[in-house]
Amino acid sequence: MIRINVDKRLAHFSLSVNAEFDKGITALYGRSGSGKTTLLRILAGLEQPENGSIYVDEDCWLDGSLTVPTHQRALGYVFQQPTLFPHLTVLENIMFSHTHGKRQCANVDALIDILALSPLLNRRTTHLSGGEKQRVAIARALASKPRVLLMDEPLASLDGHAKKHIIPFLQRLCSEIAIPVLYVSHDPHEVAQLADNVLLIDEGRVIEHGPVAHIVHHNNFTQATFASPFSVCEGLVVQHDEEDRLSLVRADIGDIWVKQVNATIGSAIRLYIRADDVSLVKMLPAHSSILNILSAQVVKLTPQNSDTLVVLRVGGTELLANITKRSVKRLNLCSNDCVYAQIKGIAVHVFN
Ligand SMILES: Nc1ncnc2c1ncn2[C@@H]1O[C@H](COP(=O)(O)OP(=O)(O)OP(=O)(O)O)[C@@H](O)[C@H]1O
After folding, report:
1. I want to staple 235 with a disulfide (CB 3.0 to 4.6 A). Which of 35, 46, 96, 249 is the partner?
2. What ipTM was estimated for this complex?
3. pTM above 0.80, yes or no
């Protein structure tokens, strides 16, 4: 557990953060210049706050005049551009912190295995792809067995294909290392896929902090980076329909049919549902191509520029729908109305 309470003034910017981060991935999310990197740098001891404290469990990294220098903080730092030693092989890069640091070394074999680095170990890092370099940088950051992992847009320099490839490694790794991971990202899709919690930051102040499914529903989240609104739902795979190539997910919003997923029955799964892919009807349709029709209640209507964002209560949780103003008028939609939310199975993104 990290407990941080710091104030920092820069020339035209001030940051004031009081937060706690438990194990798992916390996405630091906010518009450009909101203070995400500054917060990581303070945690790493690369910036000195005017006052405040940082504790990792019971260990003090900063309090008043006491400042533990960066090299004595048990942390790993992964940057947007992997900074590897070009004169060393992949294995030598990974082992660098082991041979040069004083901390106990992690199980390097397990890291190499999880990050699928075995075929690369004897290669020079100059000849690796961007995604391979970043996997080496992550292994190196973890080889010193840090108690905190800081990742500053680690996938930003990768293309969509490389990102897709590396994200499952990251997910597996972060669930195995069981330490707090602070992960800066501008990409709402990445946040939805990876984060357990989100700290939303604006102008150096914490705007929201909590579980990802809750925070992504906040207007502040979409306004922070002009992301299209979406919902994140947790569920379990309960059935595969081989003939129709579909899978049934028992999610917190109800049972949802999605395109067949490569996951065993009982696997935990996360659904990403764009608000634009949710439509509303007041009566159950007699014949519909839409596979998922859920009973819902309107909680709130928020007119946007040309659309209206509708917060729905579905099961014990919330779901967002984005519909046109004309649709709101046509349905004469008001708060507390009972409706049916329709979600195309084909439109649901599945993260497993
Ligand atoms: N060394 C510095 N001196 C003065 N101002 C700085 C310094 N470093 C950063 N800033 C300012 O502090 C603010 C926060 O910067 P920071 O890099 O933390 O933002 P960020 O949220 O990480 O942005 P981005 O998403 O664009 O990387 C910005 O206004 C930036 O110009």
Report:
1. 249
2. 0.96
3. yes
